[in-house]
Amino acid sequence: MTNRARIVRGTIGVAGVVAVAELVSRAGFADTSLPPASSVLLRAAEFFGDTEFLTAVGSTLEAWILGLLLATVVAVAVGIALSTTPWLNRATHVLVEFMRPIPSVALIPLAIVSFSSITESKVSLVFYSACWPILINTLYALRDVDPLAKETLRSFGFGKAAILLRVSLPSAAPFVATGVRISAAVGLVVVVSFELVAGNGEGIGGYLLQTQSGGGRPDLMLAGAIWAGMLGALINVGLVALERRAFRWHAVRTEASA
Questions:
Q1: Pick from 1, 5, 25, 11: nearest CA to 222
Q2: How much of the chain, in percent, has pLDDT values that exceed 90?
């Protein structure tokens, strides 16, 4: 399927969902508190000129970017260390498997009391949640590097560092990028969830919480949720495009094998 066909089908699907939501809200099949889809989309469009909301979006993205960058650097470095040092990998295996399943949202109260500012709390949670997909992808990618390629360089007298830089990291890079893409989506969900729970008025989550005060505005809340979804989709599309451009050779090989 071509990219144009995917876009057309995706557009038709979105339009269909919007039409059904509009019909349900106006025909009275659902609770009257559900606003029409057209009203929600209009509010979402109005947010482009809402300085307060755009400031909230900037606050959310700032914490998300910082946490994701820190997680990428740390997780890749730890993944390399564990993959190249068997005894260290064995010593930390139980710890990694124990900490990995802990939900990041369960640590929100701990983050609030542990850091002096809300931004630091958000960054710490994004960092924690984003580390695991990147770390796991790095570990498995480095373990699956073609041993023949490494042995070939070793036979020519290359050391461990040279093999890592010339063979292991280039081979693992596409899978690490996939881990970063997964972590980007997870981190965005976590930071908005933190803002909703913290209730301090910061970020998209804080703005959504404020819309429900004094009787509530479901249309504003859903419009803000649409913005959060759009940000997630745009981030994913951007990372996929960057991944395909940076690792074109990997994309071609994957499509050929498929």
A1: 25
A2: 31
